[in-house]
Amino acid sequence: MLAAAYEELDRDSFAALTLDRLARRSGVHVSTIRRRWRTVEGVVVELLAERGSTLPTPDTGDFRRDLTQLTQAIADFNNALRNRNVLQGLLAAAAHDPRVEEIVRAAFVRRIEEVTLIARQAVERGEIPEDTDPREVIAALAAPLYYRVLILRGSIDERLVHTTVEATYQAARSGVFVRKGDREG
Amino acid sequence: MLAAAYEELDRDSFAALTLDRLARRSGVHVSTIRRRWRTVEGVVVELLAERGSTLPTPDTGDFRRDLTQLTQAIADFNNALRNRNVLQGLLAAAAHDPRVEEIVRAAFVRRIEEVTLIARQAVERGEIPEDTDPREVIAALAAPLYYRVLILRGSIDERLVHTTVEATYQAARSGVFVRKGDREG
């Protein structure tokens, strides 16, 4: 059923996804789908759990190259129509249900945490200042990409990958993300 | 009716907003509301048109101070519960309806365009390089704020205002947003 949903979202928008369409494509009866997932939003939330966290953490030994690979991976992921649709469906579901909001939030925090390795290694190699907050670096990298998808409703092109990597790299190098005596915040 | 909706969104989440609640608070009959706006999403889209575009464009004569004032204004706007709720409701509506998606997109593009004055004046004063793309500067400034609200589901604190201004300032100064022979793109 989840595979069927993912396929549907590769053909059409989240808006076009209905439980009836899912039933037709998956061969699962619509009442069964409704019992288990309640709504299309419920289906999309389970898709997040299943397919959301597959981005590898680059480890090239070079901070700028790591940033570039991570940005490209986020771009490729979100440029796939079905993933963009899942994301938009998730935020729609989050607006309607505080429990979903918490699931979405936790999923993104976890993904950021995973890839902070890039910034922590850059600190260890002396490429960026000590006391750099690694989560701020990753959030700075991710933000322009999600802004493009969610607010400007466009795809992430090469130019945006380039400016995002460079802006984050320059800012991190010049100590914008340094926290003095407050590493956790 | 719109004022009533705005008040409701200041007390509770978008998820809690129903046409019945709007009817009770506004004194307008629910069938009238349904006829005119169809859904709560429809109400929220009209709220965007009415109250969305009230941010003034700072003009202090100093690029960094302009960036700080604009960032603070976006922060204050989105930290008000009702505005955050309108935004989240809008994106939910956009996921469900391509026409709403286009309205939301156009509204943000228009707001970016308005405040590009900040970057264009900074170019004129020689604070940032010629051929800097002013829309990229503004998008870089706005992105971390919307990422915080929409993805991390948190409020925009002083620290984020500071890092966002500094990252954008450093990047713009160092020419990250310069487009050679392609000012429009």
TrEMBL record, chains A, B:
Residues 1-55 form the HTH tetR-type domain. Residues 18-37 bind DNA. The keyword Transcription regulation applies. The keyword Ribonucleoprotein does not apply. Keywords: DNA-binding, Transcription, Transcription regulation. One of its GO terms (biological process) is regulation of DNA-templated transcription. One of its GO terms (molecular function) is DNA binding. This is TetR-like C-terminal domain-containing protein.
